Amino acid sequence: MSSDGRDRATGIGYDPPVSSWPPDQPVHDFPSLSVRWEGLVVVLDSTTLNTIVRKALAKVPEVRNLLIEPEYGRLGVTVTVKKKGVPVSLRSHFTSIRLKDGFLGFHVDDLVAFGFVPIPNWLFRRIATRLPYRSTFFYPDERVVVIDLNAFLPEDLTVNVREVLCENGEMRFVFGPSQY
Question: Is the whole model's pTM more than 0.85, yes or no?
Answer without folding.
Answer: no
